[in-house]
Design brief:
Layout lengths: L2 H21 L13 H5 L11 H12 L21 H13 L10 H18 L6 E5 L2 H16 L4 H4 L7 E6 L4 H9 L7 E4 L1 E2 L4 E2 L1 H13 L3 E8 L11 H11 L2 E5 L24 E4 L1 H4 L7 E5 L2 H8 L30 H36 L3 E8 L2 E6 L7 H15 L5 E5 L2 E7 L7 H8 L9 H4 L4 H6 L3 H21 L22 H14 L5 E2 L2 E2 L2 H14 L1 H13 L2
Parallel strand pairs: 2-3, 2-6, 6-7, 7-8
Antiparallel strand pairs: 1-9, 4-5, 8-9, 10-11, 11-13, 12-13, 14-15
Helix pairs in contact: 4-13, 5-13, 6-8, 6-12, 9-10, 13-15, 14-18, 15-18, 18-19, 18-21, 19-20, 20-21
Length: about 575
Amino acid sequence: MEADAIRSWGAKIADWAARYLSGVRERPVRSPQAPGVTFNALPAAPPRKGEDMAAIFADFERIIVPGLTHWQHPRHFAYFPCNSSPPSVLAEYLTASLGVQCMLWQTSPAATELEMRVMDWLRQMIGLPEGFHGVIHDTASSATLSALLTAREKALHWRGNSQGLSGQPAVRVYCSEQAHSSIDKACWIAGIGQENLIKLPSVGALCGMDVAALEHAIRADKEAGHLPAAIVASVGATSVGACDDVRIICEIARRHDLHVHVDAAWAGSAMICPEFRALWDGVELADSVVFNPHKWLLTNFDCTAFFVRDPEALVKTLGIRPEYLKTRGRDGIINYSEWSLQLGRRFRALKLWFVIRAYGIERLQGVIRSHVRWAQDLAQRIEASPDFELVTPPILSLLSFRYTPDGAGDLDALNARLIQAINDDGRIYLTQTRFEDKFVIRLVVGQTCTTEADVTVATYMDGLTLQTPAQAGPSGGMGTLVSGNVREIAVGVLALACLLMVSLMVRRAAPPAPVTPTLEDTEPAEMTAGEAVAGEVGEGVNALVGQELDGEQLESHQMIEQVSTMVKENPDAAAQLIRRWLNRS
């Protein structure tokens, strides 16, 4: 491909990307494809001769895009966010164009020194004191493995790498039962072993590690001849956002000379807001800290920030210097390949630099504060709903809940069917977890383009009462939406009807496939907000036609007429009517 073709196709792909990102909310969040569809659409053998770029791009749109889950969708509330932003996307284009390999200072001096500077910016932004030094890894899993390898070597007096673990005392690592599975995997890979990862119970409102149990476990292991090496403190753990008491853990660790690694993979980004730093009070006492800007700081995957207090210990553990990797004639330089597992390194600092400069600290803080506030508002609506239970209140922007209608039997099975139906519907994407031996639905707000209206849409699955602008008042709810976008109101109310219907479906032994009514485009000037609401609820309720309730067939005109009229005159009663129909199932 020549320069002119790069220029032409670069422009086309940039245009496609802009259209995709501006229109991603119109797509189903999770791919509806069945397993094997993409695989079977691809040729079994590679082409013998090169193909035209137009054909390749056409197949990208035809075969690949339909099989993708849209992580930049504003209603992607599953897992943790993996958000991006236009400055980050543009920086990635430059990174790919440059194609530099950043393993050593001399392989790209500017890349190394930009990483040094940007990581120090990030250190300041999250409130870590001077004395912490940063490096960019691919994921938190790699950073945690690096931390535990360092802890292992320190505990074994640097004999692990040289002599192996055979004949050494059992190295012990401690974490909460809420800690991420990457801790388990790191212990496997580091040769520590699953049996030597001691998981302690979680207690309190933040589901933090039981520190009394931690102290007891360390003392018991010492008496048994084991070798305590590290404690992993979680801040914003994946399941329900659990946060350990970092300060007390660090104090215990100092008494026993243990390494403390703070895993704040998701929550660490929120620490750019000083008011949230209480969640990791004492972090300045830790030995290492990890968080992912690619989760909640508008920076493309992959980009993990790993901070260590003692970089010499990290380099002593991971650094290896064959003659062909030595840099001659340069003293005092950093070779970041010695700070990480990989030798080859991407130019990840560039996108982080673009993002921080393009948005500035204040705008990034504003994004995170909005997400946290919207999650809190959502929790209040769930708590007020008679058919739903708020299982864990928001920790930052993560909460969990479950559907608990009167008279329901197996709530775990019911909620499993509910989340499957919601995700199949496509408007919202949620994931599940288990908490206190209950199947619960978790929801996290964090996508770059998510708006308050998108989070409001999510509340409608909770069977919440509709509000008119007057009832909602100036604080938000429908009043806020009416002054904004009539179409978003329609989407939200339609989601109420459809997702309440989903609740009906999953309560049946053999639920029908979820219905996706067509949403017609409307111009705000052509109808009032009330008329838009009434029309869209009518469309949604029409999807219930043919459902048999207590031996009766629900007639389309009856349902639409009743609900459309009631939404105009009394939205609360309309919502109650829908709930009454559902409860009759």
